[in-house]
Design brief:
By secondary structure, this protein is mainly α. It has one domain: 5'-nuclease (Rossmann fold), CATH 3.40.50.1010. The protein has helices at residues 5-12, 16-24, 32-43, 48-61, 69-85, 91-103, and strands at residues 2-3, 29-31, 63-65, 107-108, 122-123. Strands 1-4-5 form a 3-stranded parallel β-sheet. Helix 5 (69-85) crosses helix 6 (91-103).
Length: 125
């Protein structure tokens, strides 16, 4: 399962629904895009040091997915499909969707717009 930023934040905050889904996953992967968004968010937090310690542990535990040529090709597919369907989603989420396609994994997210991406399973909580 690929974790979106809102899911990563929910898990960090120990939201019961997100934690329950997270614990049931066979494998967990975090896109580098999500890490960028998360680091940006915690840089502004009063609990920055606590969140930095937590994410350091997470990074030792779970797979981090980076962008590569294959991801770029999947991104182009996703973006074109969404453009033709008239259903744009945020740029970072297109990259996350591309990684989901590339790795054939669902995304854990509250964002329903992921449901506009053909062949992508969104897991909510």
């Amino acid at each position: 399962m690929i974790v979106d930023t809102n899911a990563l934040s929910a898990i960090a905050e120990a939201e019961p629904g997100a934690v329950a889904v997270f614990k049931e996953a066979e494998s967990i992967a975090i896109p580098v895009i999500v890490l960028g968004e998360y680091f940006f968010g915690i840089a502004q937090s009063r609990r920055r040091l606590e969140h930095e310690a937590w994410i350091a542990h997470v990074l030792r535990t779970f797979l981090v997915l980076e962008i590569n040529v294959e991801t770029a090709a999947r991104y182009a597919e996703v973006r074109l499909e969404l453009k033709r369907a008239g259903k744009p989603i945020p740029q970072n989420d297109m990259w996350i969707a591309a990684l989901c396609r590339e790795h054939a994994m669902p995304v854990l997210s509250r964002d329903r717009h992921f449901e506009s991406v053909k062949g992508l399973e969104r897991i909510g909580w």
